[in-house]
Amino acid sequence: MLQLGEKIIIVADAFEQNLPIGDYGYLIAYDRNPDNAFDYVIRVPQANRNFYVTAEDIEAEEELLIVEAERATHEALIDYALSTFNEKLFHHLMNGESAQAEEPEIISQETLSQAEFIKQVNLRAWI
Predict the structure, then answer these.
(1) How big is the chain by its Cα radius of gyration, in Å?
(2) Could you please report the per-residue DSSP string of 55-70?
(3) Model confidence at 104, in pLDDT bands (50, 70, 90)?
(4) Which residues contact 29 (CB under 8 A, 6 or more apart)?
């Protein structure tokens, strides 16, 4: 739930009431009427008006900034992978594939000879 006085961004206009999408505003009240479809009352300084809005129509500015920063970072990593011809990083970013090679399967302790056991321990020691 959003806090009173919190800076918000208008992201949608569900009831087509000509909300200024993309503009910022401030949450000034909760609408506690159970018969009403609206959740909040916001003040938009640029429009010099108050609007009744639903929770889906607005988003906290901090959350939008975090999402935008993650998107910009992801795009920068894709650009870096393309410019350095790093195919593994590119596939990891685009498909979510693992950038590292799969770990070898663990063989049961009963079937290992002494040489195989030492080989497995040495492989894990390097990781």
Answers:
(1) 27
(2) GGGEEEHHHHHHHHHH
(3) very low
(4) 4, 40, 41
Place of tokens 């920063």: 69
Is 10:44 a contact under the CB 8 Å cutoff? yes
Q: Model-level pTM?
A: 0.61
Return phi, psi of residue 42, to 5°.
-120, 155
| Mean pLDDT taken over the chain | 84
**Is residue 107 within 8 Å of 119, Cβ to Cβ?**
no
Q: How far is CA 96 from the centre of its chain?
A: 15
d(CA 30, CA 28): 7
Beta-bridge partners for 60: 8
Residue 104 CB-density burial (10 A; 0-12 exposed, 13-18 middle, 19+ buried): exposed
Q: What residues are paired with 51 via a beta bridge?
A: 42
Mean pLDDT across the stretch 96-116? 56
Tokens of 65: 């900034």
pLDDT digits (tens, 9 = 90+) for 6-26: 999 999 999 999 999 999 999
